[in-house]
Amino acid sequence: MKLALLGGGGFRVPLVYRTLMSDPSPHRVREVRLFDVDPVRLGAMAKILDSLAGGDPAAPAVVVCEDLADAVRGVDFIFSAIRVGGTAGRAQDERIAREVGILGQETTGFGGISYALRGLPVALDIARTIAEVNPEAWLINFTNPAGIITEATRGVLGDRVIGICDSPIGLARRVLSTLETAELVPAGTAGKVGIGGGEVRLDYIGLNHLGWLQGIQVAGRDVLPELLARPALIESFEEGRLFGADWIRTLGSVPNEYLHYYYYARETVLADREAQQTRGVFLEQQQGAFYSDAQAASPEEVARLWEQIRRDREETYMATNREAAGGVPRDESDLESGGYDRVALAIMHAIADDEPAQLILNVAGRGAAPFLPEDAVIEVPCLVDSRGARPLPVSDVPGHGRGLVQSVKQVERTVIRAAHEGSAELAIEALALHPLIDGVGTARRALALAQDTFGQLSYLR
To answer: Is 393 within the bounds of a domain?
Structure first.
């Protein structure tokens, strides 16, 4: 197989390449094409991949492309993880959010909407290029906000777009690891999640970064009640410490970590305001230094530096949320990178080899959430084979979450309309309707500041 990585200078590209190298399949990826608009970042990633390959003739060949059409022409799969505006854009979103007194997280609320409005025109151009030069390719989208970008690009490429995220898979693994430690499920059960196998069935539904784990079938038995019955066990893993055992037991399900921004909105905004620097500023400084140092370093030196910085990123992940929850630490096991790379590989093999796999993905719901339009993209367990990805039967969105899901989906679809129509008023409508933004006045101020900051938003009129 041939794979194109769009955003090929992105920091997590080596994770994908390492996973490809570990694939023993006769149908493994043999060529990886890197495309990025930033040549410095692209050069750094090419050095790291060269070091990882270590002269192994079986390692996927790396081809650096300067033209998008050349990158996607003739490949089987396209993995898109672009960031329009870079980490500097994220830092600016956080600054604006602080100025108007709201949350600035990059995929939720104002930050997510601003990020989407910058990224949608580029993502749609990419989809149109794929449709023109390689309409048979499959687009695996990891570009955030993943739900919005996936739904918008489906308008061009249809079911050949599949959105992925590592949050729900990470959540399920942590729950199962906890149950393994308590000897409530067999050892090794957690490792069977997210790699395509069907031995573990997850009952999970919601939107990207807004979903609930409502059941886990292991050998035909739902083991989640075993967890919910034990408060101490709940608070032994990250989401349990973040939300607290009492709240998880009240919900009767385990929420995705990003729901902390909704359930503890005031506490998170206060913690964010009191933080010495925002997450975006930290990443901007960290990555700026890395890419600068990488230019003069050897491939081996760049690879070592990358691994060190990757660990620092994981240690500080969602730091303000953990501070808002009372200073929740991260376990060593939490520092393992998410696993979206393995999900992507499982998708490629399921489609290319017609070997059915079960994975949590972002796809058109087609009735899985009956109160949403059939074509609305949701995050749900899917069966994946040569025909693509199709939702599996799951429990409906829990009653306490339906209003939230419906409101946020309306916001997402309004953002897409704003991008298509170049409408500032629709952008304001999306902002004002979001549950984490307090009113029309705040929405207008936030968008005005964003338009003053980002040239990419000049199309909104």
So the answer is: no
Find where tokens 């989809």 sit: 127
Sign of CA dihedral 160, 161, 166, 172: negative
pLDDT in tens, 3-24: 999 999 999 999 999 999 999 9
CATH of the domain at 61: 3.40.50.720
Q: Is residue 138 part of a domain?
A: yes
Look at residue 195 and tell me whether its pLDDT is greater than 80: no
The burial of 421, by beta-carbon neighbours within 10 Å (0-12 exposed, 13-18 middle, 19 or more buried), is given as middle
Give domain status of residue 347, yes or no.
no
222 — alpha (psi -120 to 50), left (phi > 0) or beta?
A: beta
Residue range 311-321, pLDDT digits in tens: 777 776 666 77
User: Is residue 69 assigned to a domain?
Assistant: yes
- Mean pLDDT, range 347-356, rounded to an integer: 93
Domain count for the chain, please give it.
1
Through-space distance between the first and last CA atoms of the chain, rounded to whole angstroms = 43
**What pLDDT is recorded for position 335?**
46
Contact 90, 111 (CB under 8 A): yes
- Residue 68's domain spans which residues? 2-87+103-164
Q: Residue 337: is its pLDDT beyond 70?
A: no
Residue position matching structure tokens 């151009």: 125
Contact 325, 265 (CB under 8 A): no
